[in-house]
Known about the structure:
Largest sheet: 3 strands, antiparallel
Strand order of the largest sheet: 2-1-3
Oligomer: single chain
Strand content: 15-25%
Bound molecules: zinc ion
Shape: elongated
Number of domains: 2
Radius of gyration: 23 Å
Number of strands: 6
Amino acid sequence: MAYKFNLVNCGCGHSFGTSGSRVNYCTKCGSTTNIKNVTGFENAEKLSVAVSTANIPKEISDELIEKIQKKENKHKSSSQNKSSDPFNLMKKATDIDGNLSKLSLDEVLISEGISDTTSEHLIGQAEMQGLLTRVTQNTWNWLS
Ligand SMILES: [Zn+2]
């Protein structure tokens, strides 16, 4: 399947992005036959990140990629090991008056790097367990 946004690596060492489905020629050396590799991306944002990374000198980019991968692994393992108990997250999101809002819980989830659950889900679970009761459209109070 062809992507609309492509990262093109030319044999001359230049990498550039195209947003068409077809690669015509290298924007640096003009070659049409020197194209080494084309990688598709699903959106323009991802493509622009890839293009800027691709044009960083090789040694730096290896280091950078390693750093990014390390960071990602760290990120993954921290959200996978479930050290963050939903109950604690919700307590963290509760203000001094004992009100928990969806917005504050969203903020806690983001700051903890938790992406495998949603504030709606956590609040819904706690509601079912009788821990929370809804007081306004977007605010809940603790029952215990
Ligand atoms: Zn080229």
